[in-house]
Design goal:
Layout lengths: L11 E7 L2 E2 L3 E10 L5 E9 L3 E3 L4 E7 L3 E11 L6 E2 L2 E8 L4 E7 L2 E4 L1 H6 L8 H25 L1
Parallel strand pairs: 2-11
Antiparallel strand pairs: 1-3, 3-7, 4-6, 4-9, 5-7, 8-11, 9-10
Length: 156
């Protein structure tokens, strides 16, 4: 009987998705790590380096083991400045070991699109806040009703 141990370097891919990123607001970025290689990964750590945003959560998340042909995700909470660029390119640093104990560090850059509030509204990505308009209409209607009632009383 023979036992063959495949000790191929792990192949990890990184993808990211986020809530709608609006400048001046909090959002969540989800980073997905995919093990496309033939060997399992252990001690997997994922770190995000802020670029154009403020990190509200821890910058490092621990995944641990990631078997071959599997994936896992971590979330980071961020807040964008009003002067953040429209394309944010944070680095994702992943550190891990293969089954033989060899240590690896990979850095991947992800791209995330951000919008200012007016741009997001004009593209219908967010609903406009009509609260102020509704309050103004109600106030005007109340004023008109009061004026109408006073004029009617004077005529009597």
């Amino acid at each position: 009987n023979f036992i063959v141990v495949i000790n191929d370097r792990p192949v990890l891919d990184v993808t990211a998705k986020s809530d709608l990123l609006i400048k001046g607001e909090k959002s969540r970025v989800t980073v997905k790590i995919i093990n496309k290689g033939l060997s399992d990964v252990k001690f997997l750590n994922v770190e995000i380096s802020p670029s154009g945003f403020i990190l509200l959560s821890e910058n490092t998340q621990y995944i641990g083991e990631l078997p071959s042909d599997d994936f896992d995700s971590v979330e980071f909470e961020i807040s964008l400045n009003q002067n953040s660029p429209s394309i944010i390119k944070p680095n994702i640093i992943i550190t891990y070991e293969d089954i033989a104990g060899n240590k690896y560090t990979d850095t991947k850059t992800i791209e995330l699109k951000s919008y200012d509030r007016k741009e997001a509204e004009s593209l219908d990505l967010v609903k406009r806040d009509n609260t102020l308009l509704i309050i103004a209409v109600i106030v005007i209607l109340v004023i008109l009703a009061i004026v109408y009632l006073r004029i009617r009383r004077r005529k009597k």
